[in-house]
Design goal:
Elements (H helix, E strand, L loop, with lengths): L4 E4 L2 E2 L5 H12 L4 E9 L4 E8 L1 H18 L15 E10 L3 H19 L3 E5 L10 H5 L6 H5 L20 E5 L4 E7 L4 H11 L4 E2 L20 E2 L6 E8 L4 E8 L7 H14 L4 E7 L4 H14 L8 H12 L9 H4 L1 H5 L12 H9 L7 H24 L8 H36 L6 H29 L2 H11 L5 H26 L5 H36 L1
Parallel strand pairs: 5-7, 6-7
Antiparallel strand pairs: 1-4, 1-5, 2-4, 2-5, 3-4, 8-12, 8-13, 9-10, 11-12
């Protein structure tokens, strides 16, 4: 189950006083679940760019606290710097990373903007995707006039803030809060030292393209429109900015790109297009490098893309997909590509808390057998399901590579991809089930001295119990569709692997039945009997379907084994 992760990159109007910067980053890090990725102070600009990631709620809280702290310790009436600015927190953009849409991110950005305006009395303009008005999408328009022109700007009804008072806040100025796409800084290495050739390739691919010239000759006269502006010939890649330069440290020229929307132009598409354009100019691409971080999905998509070009199944492990992506794009040419340092989700992994799915088989078994009541049957049920699906995925991958079945590779690859998606969801549920149990323990540990405390404790217990019912139910819902994969592999997969698919069906049925036992026992402690009865009724239906599927698959496996004897 893909985690909802957003990134926030606020810019604060302080780049010299490291103590003030630390005060701001301290409040960000005080929010559990938030990971501070980068702090980049600039002396001449007198501005610091901070980057942090986490769940939407945690990031929203950290962003508000950071803006609040900045308003307390930064006095804009005394601020001077080279960079345009209008507030103590000048801009505060939110960026969807994984498991969340832009629309959802916009709603979080607007909620934070409203809170800043109402609670802190700071005028807030919403820009980019969170803008309420088209003329405010552009940050430059929102910031026009800067801090010094804010008093006049706020007196104009056309520039009434989206949130907060239309009053000049002398100390804090104004803040722009936005939602924008994730930007990936991606450089492609060339086997040349020529900046001119690198720039030519950059102009070939970047969306803006190059100025048109008479006769199409590079030295021809520039063609201008009626307004006197250059007529541009667009490049081949949308949402891409690019320039060519020479890097003395590496001794080669590079195409330096900003991929401003990787849902439009992913890294692997940009890489391949640069390869094509470079080859057309007699230049070869030798590798690439990522500047900063990248979402896991972007690397997995790249791995699948390059496997697909080889007519190989993309339903392999995340580690294998990342390895394929790194090797295919030469991401380790300049320096070793370390996923734990370059992929956002891996950087975010909480240190000091070992996730169950990060344990090896022996560690997981020993942890299950220990005196601790968790992990228990729910986590084990989810893991059994993941193993059952994995056997189906294995058969699909084997079938996609079977000699003589070359024309079927795509079909089996799609089945393998389906299996891998279900595997990953079930693996996440291994930890979710244990976390759900721990939530119940925490709820029971809440104080109960006063009537108010007792009421809050009881509500927390009921909320935690409901979650402890829903998690194993999600295991059941997630596991059931995998029977279709196992049946398909028994009927049409590699005939020497039908027993593997059969074992997968047995494990899957055990997963569903085991999860249902947890649903039922946890439902006993829920006061909302209507909710409990509804979940149990739906669970009964899933359990019956799982039993029928497993029996049909085993019957088919048995008949095939007997036939082959």
């Amino acid at each position: 189950m893909e985690r909802k992760i957003i990134e926030c990159v606020p810019n604060f109007s302080e780049g010299n006083d490291l103590e003030k910067i630390r005060e701001i980053t301290d409040v960000i890090e005080s929010v559990a679940g938030v990971k501070l990725l980068d702090v980049d102070p600039g002396k001449d600009t007198n501005r610091t760019v901070v980057t942090f990631v986490g769940s939407p709620d945690d990031v929203s809280e950290a962003a508000f606290l950071a803006v609040k702290k900045a308003s307390e310790i930064i006095d804009m009436s005394k601020h001077h710097g080279e960079h345009p600015r209008m507030g103590a927190t000048d801009v505060c953009p939110f960026i969807p990373v994984s498991g969340i849409t832009m629309e959802e991110t916009v709603s979080y950005a607007r909620r934070v903007a409203e809170r800043i305006g109402n609670d802190l009395g700071i005028p807030v303009f919403c820009y980019e995707n969170s803008a309420f008005k088209e003329e405010r999408r552009n940050l430059a328009s929102c910031r026009a006039g800067e801090y010094e022109g804010l008093g006049k700007k706020l007196s104009d009804p056309l520039w009434k803030p989206d949130f907060g008072p239309a009053v000049f806040n002398v100390r804090s100025g104004a803040t722009a809060v936005g939602a924008r796409d994730f930007l990936v800084a991606f450089n492609v290495n060339l086997n040349t030292t020529s900046t001119r050739r690198a720039n030519a390739i950059a102009y070939d691919v970047r969306e803006k393209g190059r100025p048109a010239r008479e006769g199409g000759h590079p030295d021809g006269k520039l063609i201008r429109d009626k307004k006197g502006e250059n007529v541009m010939i667009p490049g081949s890649l949308k949402s891409v900015k690019a320039i060519g330069w020479y890097i003395a440290e590496y001794g080669v020229a590079q195409i330096s790109m900003n991929l401003t929307d990787i849902s439009v132009t992913p890294v692997h598409v940009a890489f391949d297009e640069v390869c094509r354009k470079a080859d057309a100019r007699g230049v070869r691409v030798t590798g690439s490098e990522l500047v900063g971080l990248i979402p896991l999905k972007a690397m997995l998509d790249a791995g699948r893309y390059f496997l697909d070009k080889q007519q190989r199944s993309g339903g392999v492990s995340d580690d294998e997909l990342i390895k394929i992506a790194v090797k295919s794009m030469g991401l380790d040419e300049i320096q070793k590509f370390i996923p734990e340092e370059k992929i956002i989700e891996y950087v975010m992994e909480t240190k000091g808390r070992e996730r169950l799915i990060s344990m090896n088989l022996k560690e997981f078994m020993n942890e299950t057998a220990s005196e601790s009541p968790a992990p228990g049957g729910g986590s084990v049920s989810a893991y059994m399901g993941a193993l059952g699906v994995a056997l189906g995925t294995m058969v699909a991958n084997l079938s996609s590579h079977k000699r003589g079945w070359d024309d079927k590779w795509k079909e089996y690859s799609e089945w393998a991809l389906m299996g891998k998606e279900i595997q990953n969801k079930l693996l996440d549920l291994v930890d979710e089930d244990t976390e759900a149990f721990n939530m119940i323990l925490k709820a029971y540990a809440l104080p109960k001295k006063s009537e108010e405390e007792i009421s809050k404790r009881n509500q927390a217990v009921q909320d935690a119990t409901k979650n402890a019912i829903l998690v194993p139910y999600k295991v059941m819902e997630t596991a059931l569709p995998a029977f279709a994969l196992l049946r398909e592999m028994v009927e049409k997969g590699n005939p020497t692997s039908v027993s593997d698919a059969g074992v997968g069906a047995l494990a899957l049925r055990a997963s569903v039945k085991g999860a249902f036992l947890n649903v039922r026992i946890n439902a006993m402690g829920l006061d909302d009997k209507t909710f409990a009865a509804d979940i149990i009724a739906r669970g009964c239906t899933i359990e019956t379907k799982a039993m029928m599927e497993e029996e049909a698959i085993i019957k088919l496996v048995e008949s095939m084994i007997v036939k082959g004897q």
